[in-house]
């Protein structure tokens, strides 16, 4: 306002509660807010104190005592409020929006602006398809070696490739090579794709971590198991013999079987014995019959030669036993 009086929204004014012109009345009003301050009031305020209404002092003192009993602390004695502002405001005016006509609502809904969708940023687009990665020459060479190993060898054993010193591994390699067993090492990222597309896919659970293969053209299981028993830190996991998958215990049981040459000799000996026995049984009866007939013929010749000398026929011979 032009007079310097502060105003607030809604028409309210901030006016001082005390409009007395004399300073004595203002000081009395200040002390009326703190009734305990009358004890320390100067003597110049005595007439003004007596001029207070009869109900102001007891009410103020009762309020101060109640505040102390509730646990509150009295205000600081150095600070004395001299003026207090009171807001005299009016009611708030609330304006309501007018309801739009139904036809206009339909028109506004039909003619509502639909902004175009923003273009997708190139960074948000899916990446273009990458060309297929070509295999290097080393991977192709390893694939050919793996295919040759599984094609040309009848026994393939899988072992865990533990941390061995170079000297121990070289000694083991030479001991196996004496019996025609070779040690092969291939990376799993090349070996597993080959096994997935072949008839040996059931061997995939054995290839976990670092592995090595013990292969031989002939199944030298007994020699391999005997050598691996002397190397306990190189465990045998399993493998296959003649396209038959075996576990570790299967290899041990296979090693306890006799050799193929011994089995062949035993089979040939058994068959020869049966043939000889059959031949003997077939020739025994005809040979016995032939010997009996020869003996009968000799006896007849002897009897014929003895009859002309004595002139009497010989007694008849008993019938031969069948």
Automatic annotation (TrEMBL):
Subcellular location(s) per record: Mitochondrion
Main localisation: mitochondrion
Ranges of biased composition (kind: Pro residues): 311-322
Record's keyword annotation contains Membrane: no
Sequence segments annotated as region (Disordered): 1-20, 298-322
InterPro entries in the record: Ribosomal_uL10, Ribosomal_uL10-like_sf, Ribosomal_uL10_bac_type
Gene Ontology CC: one annotated term: mitochondrial large ribosomal subunit
Organism per entry: Myodes glareolus (Bank vole)
UniProt KW Ribosomal protein keyword: yes
UniProt keyword list: Mitochondrion, Ribonucleoprotein, Ribosomal protein, Transit peptide
Protein family: Belongs to the universal ribosomal protein uL10 family.
Highest taxon listed in the record's lineage: Eukaryota
UniProt-recorded name of the protein: Large ribosomal subunit protein uL10m
First and last residue of the signal peptide: none
């Amino acid at each position: 306002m032009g007079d310097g009086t502060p105003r607030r929204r809604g028409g309210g004014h901030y006016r001082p509660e005390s409009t007395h012109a004399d300073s004595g009345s203002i000081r009395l009003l200040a002390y009326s807010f703190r009734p305990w301050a009358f004890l320390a009031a100067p003597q110049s305020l005595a007439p003004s104190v007596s001029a207070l209404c009869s109900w102001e002092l007891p009410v103020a003192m009762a309020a101060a005592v109640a505040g102390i009993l509730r646990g509150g602390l009295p205000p600081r004695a150095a600070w004395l409020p001299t003026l207090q502002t009171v807001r005299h405001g009016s009611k708030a005016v609330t304006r309501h929006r007018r309801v739009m006509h139904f036809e206009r609502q339909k028109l506004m809904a039909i003619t509502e602006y639909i902004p175009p969708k923003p273009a997708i940023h190139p960074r948000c687009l899916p990446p273009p398809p990458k060309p297929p990665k070509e295999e290097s020459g080393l991977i192709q060479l390893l694939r050919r070696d793996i295919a040759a190993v599984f094609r040309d060898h009848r026994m393939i054993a899988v072992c865990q490739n533990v941390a061995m010193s170079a000297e121990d591994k070289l000694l083991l390699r030479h001991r196996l090579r004496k019996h025609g067993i070779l040690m092969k090492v291939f990376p799993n990222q090349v070996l597993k794709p080959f096994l997935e597309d072949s008839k040996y896919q059931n061997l995939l659970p054995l290839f976990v971590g670092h592995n090595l293969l013990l292969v031989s053209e002939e199944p030298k299981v007994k020699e391999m198991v005997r050598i691996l028993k002397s190397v306990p830190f190189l465990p045998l996991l399993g493998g296959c013999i003649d396209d038959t998958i075996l576990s570790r215990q299967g290899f041990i049981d296979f090693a306890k079987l006799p050799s193929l040459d011994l089995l062949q000799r035993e089979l040939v000996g058994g068959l020869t014995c049966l043939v000889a026995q059959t031949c003997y049984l077939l020739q025994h009866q005809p040979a016995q019959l032939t010997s009996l007939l020869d003996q009968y013929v000799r006896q007849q010749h002897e009897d014929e030669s003895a009859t002309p000398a004595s002139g009497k026929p010989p007694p008849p011979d008993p019938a031969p036993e069948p």
